[in-house]
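Take a careful look at the protein record below. Let me know whether the structure tokens fit the sequence:
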Amino acid sequence: MSRAWITAAAGLALLAALPFLTSPYVLHIAVQVLILGLIYTAWSFMGRFGLVSLGHGAFLGIGAYTSALLWNLYGVTPWLGIPAGVALSVLLALVIGYPCFHLKIVGHYFALVTLALGQVVALLIVAARDVTGGSLGMTPKAVGTSLYALQFPNRIQFYFIALALWLLVLALRHWVSFGMRRAALDAIGEDETAAAAAGVDVMREKLRVTVISAAVTSLGGSVLTQYLMYLNPETVSGVGISLQIVFAAIAGGMYSALGPTVGALLTLALTEGLRILFGTQFIGAANTIYGILLILFIVFMPRGILGVIEDIPLSRSKRERVGPAQSAGG
């Protein structure tokens, strides 16, 4: 068995044992890291291939509010409400993605379209305040322990749900990045015209990765709502959460499988640290810091934290090869 498989097995064993080894607070953070990690990983599906979305808060909000509203208004179980939110997010991704890709809207123009999309969804949620609670948010009806309502007072159940979904998304990421599919997406990211000339169906590949990204983001939004039992436009939609998604994926390393999850840990540590240090005295500090750090990461660490760590052995081996070569030349 290779070292990579042994490391992966040890990591999974540690994750499985984590709920029984830590405090409730640490477990609470771990559940959020896993759920946010799968959301940020969903964004990296697009971002790593040059499709920069600044409006993933739209898909997050649709997933969160669809399942919550169906439960509160009609008593529809989240087991059906969550797929309904995913379906709506996929439909929205197709409605936005198809004309953009058909008209070859790329680069910063595509980013601006998605930015507007995220803000439109947030404004619609606020405008429908009679149903959604507007800017004050809403709370799904609590019924105690219920598998039908997907509500558990014990965090352990949600931890294993989040862990299973996180592993599933990592497997999906591997599928998206496998073989010819990855080669096609890499080619599209480099030069769409050249990729099309080489026989790549640019429209199909871009729509596929956009739909997958939107669906997973919506799923994450719904599950996060079920866990926190509260949602409002600021936390699940709009520019702020979209910026947080982009920051976390880039900071952790969107080219690495675990990079977005590392970004989730970083953003939660930042949020919790600011809450402990300043309480309610520095409202909006997190988004301000996300913006500043995003600039710094893009300029100095474009491959993110894990990207830098992964490059260390390569740099070391390169120096070792150059050293003997210089000595021989001397």
